[in-house]
TrEMBL record:
A molecular-function term among this protein's GO annotations: lipid binding
UniProt subcellular location: Cytoplasm, Cytoskeleton
GO biological process: actin cortical patch localization; endocytosis; plasma membrane tubulation
Keywords annotated in UniProt: Coiled coil, Cytoplasm, Cytoskeleton
Organism expressing this protein natively: Blomia tropicalis (Mite)
Domain BAR: 26-270
Coiled-coil features, chain-numbered ranges: 156-213
Main localization, broad class: cytoplasm
Signal peptide: none
Protein name: BAR domain-containing protein
Gene Ontology CC terms: actin cytoskeleton; cytoplasm
InterPro entries, per database record: AH/BAR_dom_sf, BAR_dom, BIN3/RVS161-like
Length: 285
């Protein structure tokens, strides 16, 4: 089965916190005109959580699908072994009668029986192989990329938490500076005032730097999220189409072993079956 490769678009420009440590911004105090609005930040943080929840749910659904495909293959494998066991026991218990029945069969009947067994075995193996290939493709082109995409959400959440912590520190240091400015100018007060003024200046610088990064990277990350997943969606749809096509081809190869009857006879049998279904009390009630 054809493998689907997924080309990932560039989302953002790298680790947000790493960029924060490298970005150079003027260490002046926060400007109300260009500061990151708290409502916008809360709104983007809520969207980030919502999209990550969707990513996680989608990843789980894909995992359920691959588990179902693998479980179905295993179930058929177990069923085949059980059937083989009962057939073997039946043959051993009635081998004389079965050998007589086989000897009484014509060469054409034996050849047809062998054809049916071979065709069915080939069909079952091909269907199982198609399921296995589909599960592999879904895992490589959908589940693994979605798991890797979680790293981007984690980086953004860490940056938002860092911004919130810096905002809290900035407010705390502002209050401390105001407190010691209004206090009596003793040596201890001056030392503490200088210390908190230094901390406030650093908090201002870090806050401005991270704010600039978030204003640029967070909206871009939210906007480009669909570009990241689109190749996975295309690969998933293509793999489903290929899976269905391969199963139909396998079914077509199985058709010649059906009953050798004309189309008219087949239609008559089908009509009789429908009539018997219509006559059931549960249908007529």
């Amino acid at each position: 089965m054809t493998r689907f490769s997924v080309i990932r678009p560039n989302i953002g420009r790298g680790n947000v916190l790493r960029m924060f440590s490298k970005t150079q911004v003027s260490p002046n105090g926060p400007n109300q005109s260009d500061s990151l609005d708290n409502k916008d930040l809360d709104s983007n943080a809520a969207l980030l959580r919502e999209y990550d929840d969707r990513r996680n749910k989608l990843c789980k659904e894909f995992k359920k699908l691959t588990d179902c495909l693998n479980d179905l293959n295993y179930s058929e494998y177990v069923d085949d072994n059980i059937i083989s066991f009962f057939l073997y026991n039946n043959f051993m218990n009635n081998r004389k009668q079965l050998l007589q029945d086989l000897n009484s069969m014509t060469t054409h009947s034996i050849e047809r029986l062998n054809l049916i067994v071979d065709k069915w075995s080939t069909f079952s193996n091909q269907i199982a192989k198609n399921r296995e290939d589909l599960a592999t493709i879904i895992n490589r082109t959908s589940i693994e990329p979605l798991k890797k995409f979680q790293n981007g959400f984690n980086e953004m959440r860490s940056a938002i938490k860092r911004y919130e912590q810096l905002t809290a520190d900035f407010n705390k240091y502002t209050q401390k500076v105001a407190k010691y400015k209004d206090s009596e100018r003793t040596s201890t007060v001056i030392i503490k005032l200088n210390d908190y003024q230094s901390r406030l200046a650093q908090a201002q610088s870090d806050l401005n730097t991270l704010r600039a990064v978030l204003e640029r990277e967070l909206p871009m990350f939210l906007l480009k999220r669909s570009d990241y997943f689109q190749p996975s969606l295309v690969a998933f749809i293509s793999s489903e189409i290929l899976f269905s096509g391969n199963n139909l081809n396998a079914l077509k190869e199985l058709q010649p072993i059906g009953d050798e009857v004309s189309e008219v006879e087949r239609q008559e049998r089908q009509n009789k079956l429908f009539d018997s279904i219509d006559s059931l009390s549960i249908v007529n009630s």
